[in-house]
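Fold this sequence, please.
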Amino acid sequence: MSVKSNLKMKYLAQLMLSGALIGAANVSFGEDVIDVGTVQSNAGAATAEEKKETATYQAPTQSSLIATQPQSIISQHYIQENAAPSANYSDIANIAPSVSSIDPNGPGMMETQGLSMRGFQNGQYNVTFDGIPWGDSNDFTQHSTSYFMAQDIGNVLVDRGPGDASNIGNATFGGTIAATSKDPKTTSTITPYASFGSFNTRMFGAEMDTGVMQNSGDASAFVDYRNFSSDGYLTNAGQQRQNAFFKYVKPLSDNTVLTFVTMQNQVHQNVALGTTLANMQKYGKNFGLNLDPTSQAYSGYNYDNITSDFEYIDIKSRQGDLSIDNKLYTYAYYHNGANGTDPGLGTLNGTTYGGNNVPGQMMTMNYRSTGDLLRMSEESGIGKLDFGAWVDYQTNNRTQKEVDWTLGGAINPMGNPATNGIDRAMTDTLTTIQPYVQYEWKASDALTVTPGLKYVSFNRGLNATVNQGATGQPLNTSQTWNKALPSLDAHYMIEPDWSVYAQYAQGMLAPNINAFYPMKGTQFTNPSTLQAQSTTNYQIGTTLVEEKLTASGDIYVVDFSNQNTAVPCGIFTCYNNTGGVKYSGIESEATYVLGEGVSVYGNAAINNYAMSQAGGVLQNVPKNTAALGLIYNQGPAYASLIAKEVGQRYSGTDINGNAVPMSSYTIVNFATSYEIKDSALGKGAKIGFQVNNLLNNNSIYASFANDGAGNPMFYAIPTRSYMFNLSVDM
């Protein structure tokens, strides 16, 4: 038996307005395609039913034969069949190895808390949409309920690593969650859809596809609008959301495509930060907020009103050996929020105006990013030269003030006497410039070696009349961090269906804006003492793609250095490098088609870390993750039963400042659907039913805040919930 064989054995109003505006723009987009490699079969000429019997079609996650780092491709087929109608990219990515995430209020019903990848937290990895990095300039994080929804996502690629030199973003070392928009349909279709479920959840929407318009130069487009509302699992923590998405694609010539995409989103959500064990015993595990206007946990005092948008124009062209892809984009986030000072109810009421008055806070965060992403490649000799640049500029205005809710939001000087009740009033900017170059050297028919170099420059500016921190003093300063980041990839095709790779790469992350806040006992920060955090990444892996089997595995080591710790130095806050963390682990995933429409799926990851500081622990870093599933897909019927386990970890701190240990947990989800072709309702219809948390695991799983007395506030896993879905093609 060969070595290869041995190894294989082991493995409608807003929608219409959006359509009118975008149609007038007369632009389009050519979409990226994720290549999982060539399956050695007749699948290319197979019927649709025969393609269902391939592992590449059924796999919830899979790698690519051309991958040069660990990755999990989550297909549109999996998303449409398994993601809740309210799901965000974070819910979809959760199935991948080394990824963990739960929405405390139900799927998509609250911003994701604690989305972790290999132990890296939100802000330590990139999130992109159609290749464009997006997020807050102050801490590089994203708001999962404020942008794209599952109905408009074509696939999600989870890259667990820094990638080659062409991988751009503010946090390249931690990996990338890359969502890609779906393509317009080739035929003219109107698809209304609706969903109903637990927690008084409702969604109504419609998608209109133009099909290929021969009288408009073969342009095609779709516009999708939905209205979503839910009371959520947590008490009095509901969400109302409206989202519109439009994509227009127009070929300009045989080798050039122009695109325009826009997304508009509005959300109102009542925000619960969890609750203490005492309140859980008193009010239940799902206690979030109450309806008592004399309480700091009153839902009317704890809410977000957020408006966001995302637009880009993209031109792709091939001129001889030269390929060009240029995206000019802008996105924005406008947030007005409010909260009780202590919604955890650990401290008593009291303001300047009365001992029983309810104290609280009001805030704004309004930002817009504008940027350009240029990618070029040219066939050159025995390889390909890739080069380009990303430039992004974001302005972020942030305010926060202490208020008296009993008096309708009057300023409460008692909340911050040093600044007469103002916690912050600041404008911060972030300018990012990242040019890159790499050469894909075809050393042989099987071996490709790619050395590359990326130069990153972050300039962070802060102009604050009231700087957040110990004293609230004004601050006007800026700081720039630069570094050249080399990378080296090697990719080898052992067989047409089996590849291996190795990767070395350096990464960098600029300090967050809170590094500019003075600590207690000081008046000012000293940004010049700040060092950018940096990493050195090493990874090896392999991918197998056959007709009935997809399998991949990898081993990684990430050396994370320059961990900044604030220390007082006279009237300044200075920063010392106290070392770092070394991450390591092993990951795998596989799907095997048993036949007769049945497939089995599994993934597993072991994630370790070692801190240079003795006795230190990291928050929300599971020791392991795993998934196991059974899938049936034959004819018009689909069903899946998939369990996801998240291992032991620490989450939150107790009243003494000690990390709180959390036990492992497992969530089992069930989804089924049935398609009806040429029904009386139209061209076709699809009905679906989903059960989230089938076994009703209601254990405590995380803590991200403490009440005013220092007691940790916890989230419990939302109880079993149901969702009925219906869509009709007309």
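Confidence is low (pLDDT under 50) at residues 1-33, 38-44. Residues 13-25 form the longest helix (13 residues).
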